[in-house]
Specification:
Bound molecules: S-adenosyl-L-homocysteine, magnesium ion
Order of helices and strands: HHHEHEHEHEHEH
Structural class: alpha/beta
Distance between the termini: 22 Å
Strand content: 15-25%
Largest sheet: 5 strands, parallel
Number of helices: 8
Number of strands: 5
Shape: globular
């Protein structure tokens, strides 16, 4: 048993609703890159314990992390999710409905940067953000997110180590270069208190 299997044997973080989403993603030949069950549970706990009411998600895929985020909300909370691929957004939306969150979630289809600029122009504000879309844009997403922040906003960003590719100093892939910029911004901005896990 490895450490992931041990952790899952102690607390099962994937119920039937989440399992069905993961299986649907596989059946639809979508990329199998939803958050791991434990991270999904952590998102639920962070949302609930922070009391966030307005959540922003950047990168919906099949709605796995969306369900986990929405589960932390009270009945008056909302999730706004940004997704480039209209078919993914539709699939995520139907999965959020199955999970009981049809009235609390809205999707904006298109490039997240455009949706973020629109949200900034609308004066939108959020308490919690989950960044999990295309990696080269992470520094730009952080810039926009900070303009959308209510005081005390919690910002979670997935995959910041890029499967350890970030550890290779010579790697100049767009994702690695973007993520280095993101990590530098988040670690040096005096408004932010940060940690890499
Ligand atoms: N958060 C999801 C996984 C997201 S995978 C979960 O854990 O359940 C990354 C998603 O970002 C994909 O669905 C992809 O289509 C989307 N994406 C990629 N580039 C994007 C862009 N420029 N704008 C918005 N979404 C984008
Ligand atoms: Mg991810």
């Amino acid at each position: 048993m490895n450490r992931e299997e041990f952790a899952a044997s102690v607390v099962n973080c994937e119920d039937d609703v989440l399992l069905a989403i993961r299986q649907g993603i596989e059946a639809n030949k979508m990329p199998p890159i939803s958050v791991a069950p434990e991270l999904g549970r952590l998102l639920t706990i962070l949302v609930r314990s922070s009391g966030a009411k307005r959540i922003l998600e950047i990168g919906a895929l099949g709605g796995y992390s969306g369900v986990c985020l929405a589960r932390g909300l009270g009945p008056d909370g909302t999730l706004t999710s940004l997704e480039l691929n209209p078919e993914f957004a539709q699939f995520a939306k139907s999965n959020l409905a199955v999970a009981g969150f049809a009235e609390q979630v809205s999707y904006r289809v298109g490039a997240a940067l455009s949706s973020l600029d629109a949200l900034v122009a609308e004066g939108a504000r959020f308490d919690f953000v989950f960044i999990d879309a295309d990696k080269p844009n992470y520094p730009h997403y952080l810039d926009r997110v900070l303009r959308l922040a209510n005081p005390g906003m919690l910002i979670c960003a997935d995959n910041v180590l890029l499967g350890d590719r970030i550890l290779l100093p010579d790697n100049q892939d767009d994702s690695v270069v973007g993520m280095r910029a993101f990590l530098s911004l988040m670690s040096h901005d005096p408004r932010l208190e940060s940690v890499v896990l």
